[in-house]
């Protein structure tokens, strides 16, 4: 029964943990890359072969056609599947995702690079905003849960949680660009302004970002408020909160005990949801014609731009894997029970 | 470790605590009067639902909703009626004047903070100016209880065993030099050896610091180890109260007698232990009039149906039973 106080592991254990995550993440990325390679190769009507053959029909020599296709897809259209796979992995290691078909000759990596900025910032802003808002409201909803305000807050959470994100987006578009036209309906920025660090351009950027960010915020706010409310209610019932009150701790300190314990599980979800939103941004970017990763993916699918499709998938995967690692490290940093590697 | 002030007396008078239930407000504690003699340990025993934890919480005016203190007073020397305190006055009383060792003290600590940081939170909440001295006091108390103080203060809850957590709970209740200490089920869920250690510590610290201590438990054996006085609760009433040797040695209330008969002995035939017949009452099944124990009582009389027995004193001990005053032999009912 009486066990000695454990030594808390320090740097070495942390490094081991990070290394483990990185290795697992790399394996996951490799698996996704392999799957997307196989799918693109094995899809009915083999796009790579089709490309190769259409180039042949256009009068290219087999050699030329092979090279052109290899440049586009990052792997060879002829040769065994294994050879092609090795070639594809080889170029991946050099961070070469091939070239786009729909925007001929442009590298997939540069397309993704320019699209990423339009996804990362709004997603980050929207997620953090909805997290702060949802968590704060969740605490109120829990504390006032027997009153009208609490009911109202919980109801707002359930409602927003239940409405699909594209409905929220379309409603916002209808309200703020048609009924009451105060915000631009689409695009990332007004083309009238010269790109750069000038007030007009920045203002236009922000103006255009309002609706997408608000949509991201509303879309995940419901989940946060509901999760936080139930966490706070659960922690309120924990013995240590009553014990803290019976020890005469100041209200502010008891509140901090409560909030910190209730918010802890949400940090993991936060990091994960930032990762997931890179993929989930499809609807929102489509609605607001926002040139981010989601729109890039949609366009690559509709134009059968397989190199771009595979590349975008891969980047979204990397985003999610990184978010997973960050989530776990975050948890390690804030929960002493995880830090010392014990589950209880 | 101040011994300058004498232990305070605690006078609970006519305390009634009701719980709001779908069936209306039902009393969990009903007109309880109990005096804790300064410098003594009073044990309170009773079955689950007898109102003993509610009684303990009342001492800090901390009955949790849907419960409510309906009437009565809890006077503590130097504090006045605790039930009249509220807001900051009440908060300052808790922890500083009246220490409380929580039921299931296993879970009475914030899992995310080290014990030391929680100690500092306690000190800051009570405006302790010399936090270093507070830490030194805490270490002294912990080592007094057989723990490595510095190490415990640097630990999180999950790094401590059940017995260690319980001792930390006791340390936090005592470190601000509270003169009245309430321990709610201090040894429940601990193994026998740890139980014995905790009880010894309670007794020793109590004597060292000249405290007035209330120990709530359902374990008559545990309370017999430490208490000077014993109060037996049943159905929200104190049915018998007096010096522990007398209450346990020559119980007068039929419920106390039944409780003692129900204790299995380490030596001897286990079948000698008799379970009390029937079940403990719940808030909803308590009879509205008459004696609350009559359903399970072997000395039941006609008057028990209608009149609630008043508390009477018999050789230094108070008993609430119509039959207690009649020394005449009562025929034993046999139970299978």
UniProtKB/TrEMBL annotation, chain A:
It is found in: Cell membrane; Membrane. Keywords: Membrane, Transmembrane, Transmembrane helix, Transport. The chain crosses the membrane at residues 21-40, 120-143, 163-183, 263-284, 306-331. Residues 116-331 form the ABC transmembrane type-1 domain. SUPFAM superfamilies: MetI-like. This is Peptide ABC transporter permease. Belongs to the binding-protein-dependent transport system permease family. GO terms for cellular component: plasma membrane. It is a multi-pass membrane protein. Pfam families: BPD_transp_1. GO terms for biological process: transmembrane transport. It comes from the Bacteria. PROSITE patterns: ABC_TM1 (PS50928).
From TrEMBL, chain B:
It comes from the Bacteria. GO terms for cellular component: plasma membrane. PROSITE patterns: ABC_TRANSPORTER_2 (PS50893). It is found in: Cell membrane. Its main location: membrane. It is a peripheral membrane protein. Gene3D superfamilies: P-loop containing nucleotide triphosphate hydrolases. InterPro entries: AAA+_ATPase, ABC_Ni/Peptide_Import, ABC_transporter-like_ATP-bd, Oligopep_ABC_C, P-loop_NTPase. Residues 10-260 form the ABC transporter domain. This is ABC transporter ATP-binding protein. It comes from Planotetraspora phitsanulokensis. The lineage of its organism: Bacteria, Bacillati, Actinomycetota, Actinomycetes, Streptosporangiales.
């Amino acid at each position: 029964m009486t066990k000695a106080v454990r030594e808390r592991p320090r740097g070495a254990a942390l490094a081991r943990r990070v290394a483990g995550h990185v290795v697992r993440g790399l394996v996951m990325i490799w698996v996704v890359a392999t799957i997307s390679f196989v799918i693109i190769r094995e899809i009915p009507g083999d796009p790579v072969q089709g490309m190769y053959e259409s180039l042949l029909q256009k009068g290219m020599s087999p050699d030329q056609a092979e090279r052109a296709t290899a440049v586009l897809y990052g792997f060879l259209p002829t040769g065994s599947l294994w050879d092609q796979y090795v070639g594809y992995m080889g170029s991946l290691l050099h961070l070469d995702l091939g070239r786009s078909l729909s925007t001929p000759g442009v590298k997939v990596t540069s397309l993704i690079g320019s699209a990423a900025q339009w996804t990362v910032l709004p997603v980050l802003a929207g997620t953090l905003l909805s997290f702060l808002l949802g968590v704060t409201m969740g605490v109120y909803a829990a504390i006032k849960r027997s009153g009208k305000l609490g009911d109202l807050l919980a109801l707002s959470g359930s409602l927003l949680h239940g409405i699909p994100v594209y409905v929220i987006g379309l409603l916002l578009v209808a309200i703020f660009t048609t009924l009451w036209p105060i915000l631009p309906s689409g695009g990332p920025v007004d083309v009238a302004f010269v790109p750069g660090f000038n007030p007009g351009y920045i203002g236009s950027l922000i103006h255009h970002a309002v609706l997408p960010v608000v949509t991201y915020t509303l879309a995940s706010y419901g989940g946060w408020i509901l999760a936080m409310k139930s966490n706070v209610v659960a922690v309120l019932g924990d013995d240590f909160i009553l014990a803290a009150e019976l020890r005469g701790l100041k209200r502010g300190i008891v509140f901090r005990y409560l909030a910190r314990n209730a918010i802890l599980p949400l940090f993991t979800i936060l990091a994960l949801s930032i990762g997931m939103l890179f993929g989930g941004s499809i609807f929102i970017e489509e609605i607001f014609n926002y040139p981010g990763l989601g729109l890039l993916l949609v366009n690559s699918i509709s134009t059968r731009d397989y190199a771009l499709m595979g590349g975008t998938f891969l980047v979204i995967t990397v985003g999610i894997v990184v978010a997973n690692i960050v989530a776990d490290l975050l948890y390690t940093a804030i929960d002493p029970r995880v830090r010392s590697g014990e589950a209880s | 470790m101040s011994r300058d002030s004498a232990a305070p007396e605690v006078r609970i008078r006519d305390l009634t605590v009701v719980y709001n239930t779908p069936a209306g407000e039902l009393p969990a504690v009903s007109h309880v009067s109990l005096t804790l003699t300064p410098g003594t340990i009073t044990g309170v025993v009773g079955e689950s639902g007898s109102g003993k934890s509610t009684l303990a919480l009342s001492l800090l005016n901390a009955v949790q909703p849907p419960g409510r203190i309906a009437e009565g007073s809890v006077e503590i020397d130097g504090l006045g009626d605790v039930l009249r305190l509220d807001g900051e006055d009440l908060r300052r009383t808790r922890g500083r004047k009246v220490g409380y060792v929580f039921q299931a003290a296993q879970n009475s600590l914030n899992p995310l903070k080290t014990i030391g940081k929680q100690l500092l939170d306690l000190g800051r909440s009570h405006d302790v100016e010399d936090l270093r001295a507070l830490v030194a006091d805490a270490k002294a108390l912990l080592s007094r209880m057989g723990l490595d103080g510095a190490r415990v203060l640097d630990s999180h809850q999950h790094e401590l065993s059940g017995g260690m957590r319980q001792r930390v709970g006791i340390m936090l209740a005592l470190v601000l030099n509270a003169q009245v200490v309430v321990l709610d089920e201090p040894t429940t869920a601990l193994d026998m050896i740890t139980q014995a250690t905790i009880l010894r510590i309670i007794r020793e610290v109590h004597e060292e610091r000249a405290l007035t201590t209330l120990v709530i438990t359902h374990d008559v054996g545990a309370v017999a180890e430490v208490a000077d006085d014993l109060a037996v609760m049943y159905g929200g009433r104190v049915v018998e109260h007096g010096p522990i040797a007398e209450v346990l040695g020559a119980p007068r209330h039929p419920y106390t007698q039944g409780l003692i008969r129900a204790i299995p002995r380490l030596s001897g035939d286990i079948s000698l232990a008799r379970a009390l017949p029937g079940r403990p009452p719940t808030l909803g099944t308590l009879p509205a009039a008459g004696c609350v124990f009559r359903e399970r009582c072997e000395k039941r009389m006609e008057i028990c149906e209608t009149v609630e027995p008043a508390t009477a004193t018999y050789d230094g001990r108070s008993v609430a039973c119509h039959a207690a005053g009649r020394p005449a032999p009562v025929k034993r009912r046999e139970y299978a």
